[in-house]
Design a protein that fits this description.
Strand content: 15-25%
Radius of gyration: 20 Å
Structural class: alpha+beta
Distance between the termini: 45 Å
Shape: globular
Largest sheet: 6 strands, antiparallel, barrel
Number of strands: 20
Length: 403
């Protein structure tokens, strides 16, 4: 066992892990099926302080909310030109990077199945040297756990899980995400949990564009489907949900990088989304959402964890949902950074941002998200979600959740 403070033969520990994992799978399935699935604040001085972005929704030119149109204009961006393709301009001087600069107007019809299939995985890898930098803090490297395909249809087994699509300077990209509950707006959540590096490039860049969440992507898991002729309802059974608000820690914005960097322990984000078409909330539409566990339990206290997502890099193709179940250990890139969770898992890029779940008092809750992994794809690491993550979540919920 890799959990801190666990003793005894590895085989006996592994049996305990399997039993706990079985409960986790059952709880996630019940969570989904029981529900009938078919701008803002400035960062404070605390590490990982919540940084959120906002825009008003009271009409505006070209169908763009007025407040958002004003924000675009403040940056010298013409709304009509933006919607006609000006978002493809990644001039370094015009790449909006500050917390308050987030803009994401709806470009209706942009994310069709064929374009989704062209999205490249947004992976974040660490080298062997990086992974061994905090050997005194990290537990021994876990044994690889082979990812298992989730049962189909996904809306009956893992409805809260989906894909996050966005545009980067390199082209269309993809991560994973999870529908989470909104504590201040029960039953009507429009919140999605994902990784910080799926919405912002960190210290080397700025906000990504055209960020969209697609819950239960490719619901039937048709791995051989031709995206150009795919049934749009099967690919996006609940439609496309555009992020009109985004929040990620200031520590990620300032210190994040492709290899994790000092921002890795803060590599998480919350999106507030709205439907490209329709008026119901995301939770009402999908029929499921998960609570977030902000207690940051130690690996020894957490029991088994499961990571869900859509790995897109070989040997996977991004069309199917997979999961890994394991007992977590500690991992840190530096002795002066907070420790992260680490589990054995063979999922590759594209699974980034996907939720990590555990069973707490008989309920499945989100406890972390996929952040980084090694180049040989044998394990995954995710941040511990404590008081800073909860502050970010609460700010998003109170400020934007009811809109």
């Amino acid at each position: 066992m890799r959990s801190t403070g666990t003793s005894g033969p590895r085989g006996r520990g592994r049996r305990r892990t399997v039993l706990a994992a079985t409960g986790l799978v059952a709880a996630l399935a019940l969570t989904a099926t029981a529900c009938g699935g078919s701008g803002g604040s400035e960062a404070n001085d605390r590490p990982g302080a919540a940084t959120s972005q906002a825009a008003d929704r009271d009409g505006g030119e070209a169908g763009v909310p007025a407040g958002l149109a004003d924000r675009l204009e403040e940056h010298g961006i013409d709304v009509d030109r933006w919607k006609d393709g000006a978002w493809k301009d990644w001039d370094r001087d015009k790449w909006l990077s500050e917390a308050q600069d987030f803009v994401n107007p709806v470009v209706e019809g942009l994310w069709e199945p064929e374009r989704m299939s062209s999205a490249e995985e947004a992976d974040k890898t660490v080298t062997t040297k990086d992974a061994s930098a905090a050997r005194g803090v990290s537990d021994p490297e876990p044994a690889p756990v082979r990812a298992e395909a989730e049962k189909t249809p996904y809306h009956e087994h893992a409805a809260p899980v989906g894909k996050v699509f966005f545009d980067s300077p390199q082209g269309p990209a993809v991560c994973s995400g999870t529908v989470i509950k909104d504590v201040n707006h029960p039953g009507r959540s429009n919140l999605v949990w994902t990784a910080g590096h799926c919405v912002h490039a960190g210290g080397d860049g700025g906000w990504y564009r055209n960020i969209v969440f697609v819950p239960a992507y490719n619901d039937l898991g048709t791995s051989e489907a031709d995206p150009a002729t795919a049934n749009a309802h099967e690919i996006a059974p609940y439609g496309n949900w555009w992020a009109d608000w985004a929040s990620t820690p200031g520590r990620w914005i300032q210190g994040g990088s492709r290899s994790g960097g000092d921002g890795a322990p803060y590599d998480y984000a919350v999106l507030h989304v709205k439907p490209e078409q329709g008026s119901k909330s995301l939770e009402e539409t999908v029929g499921a959402a998960l609570d977030v566990d902000f207690s940051a339990p130690s690996p020894a206290e957490s029991g088994s964890m499961g990571a869900w997502g859509y790995p897109a890099a070989p040997p996977y193709n991004g069309l199917r949902m997979f999961k890994c179940l394991d007992s977590p250990g500690r991992f840190s890139l530096s002795s002066d950074l907070p420790t992260m969770y680490r589990i054995g898992c063979t999922m590759t890029g594209g699974s980034s941002g996907g939720g990590w779940f555990r069973v707490l008092n008989g309920r499945t809750v989100l406890v972390s998200n996929t952040s980084i992994g090694p180049t040989d794809n044998t394990w995954l690491a995710g941040p511990q979600l404590g008081e800073d993550a909860e502050a970010l979540y609460q700010d998003m919920s109170r400020t934007h959740g009811g809109r």
